[in-house]
Amino acid sequence: MEREKIISVKNLTKEFGHFTAVKGISFDVYKGEIFGFLGANGAGKTTAMKMLIGISNPTSGEANVAGFDVHSQADMVKKSIGYMSQKFSMYDDLTIKENITFFGGIYGLSRIQIKQKIAQLIEELELQEVANNLVGSLPLGWKQKLSFSVALLHEPKIVFLDEPTGGVDPITRRQFWEMIYTQAYKGTTIFVTTHYMDEAEYCDRVSIMVDGSIEALDTPKNLKEQFKVDSMNDVFLKLARNIE
Ligand SMILES: Nc1ncnc2c1ncn2[C@@H]1O[C@H](COP(=O)(O)OP(=O)(O)OP(=O)(O)O)[C@@H](O)[C@H]1O
Predict the structure, then answer these.
(1) Which InterPro entries match (predicted)?
(2) Could you report the predicted ipTM of this complex, rounded to two decimals?
(3) Taking the model in full, what pTM does it have?
């Protein structure tokens, strides 16, 4: 059976004046896949992701996300996806319940749906003791898990995660990845950027961007074989060195 493409990108390009940040990238992502979008600082990952979530117009090329064209149907793209940015995006001065209520409203959930989601999330994340505490008082790892859950409130087909685990310890990162696996198992597609190469190993497939171009794209296993190394970290280093 042919796998369902949920993201399809062809020659996608973004120029800022004379500088080309994304240079004609092409790739497909399949339903339920965990797709790692890697690259060094400044490689163009965030710029590419912004085009895929419909908040930045491509200079040229095409991208279809969840069945919608990012250029002409950006509003539909936004409704079909969840997004969690590098910068934690909840309100520190609202409680956990208030944040869920607020974002549920933005995503168009009814009052009953919001109530159900609050109960569900508080139980799943074991936040019973702190549900009425300000989000600002939570440890970063908890905020990130909550932020991920909030990005999924409207049950999007795809969730885009831009360096979701920055700054937390390996155990918390591992717990975060358990949540990602659970969600992918339910059929949600996960598009994730990360700087942590151990996390790249957890992805179904990984693309590696260097200076605006995708220089490698395959499963972690195949990439390690292709570059004749034992870890994704070494794949990354070898690729960056070859390009220089
Ligand atoms: N609005 C903009 N105007 C001009 N240049 C920009 C703009 N946004 C990004 N750039 C440049 O495009 C390049 C790619 O930036 P981008 O943020 O996409 O990289 P990245 O791979 O996401 O890096 P990081 O991991 O640091 O977030 C960088 O050289 C950056 O300075």
Answers:
(1) AAA+_ATPase (IPR003593), ABC_transporter-like_ATP-bd (IPR003439), P-loop_NTPase (IPR027417)
(2) 0.95
(3) 0.92
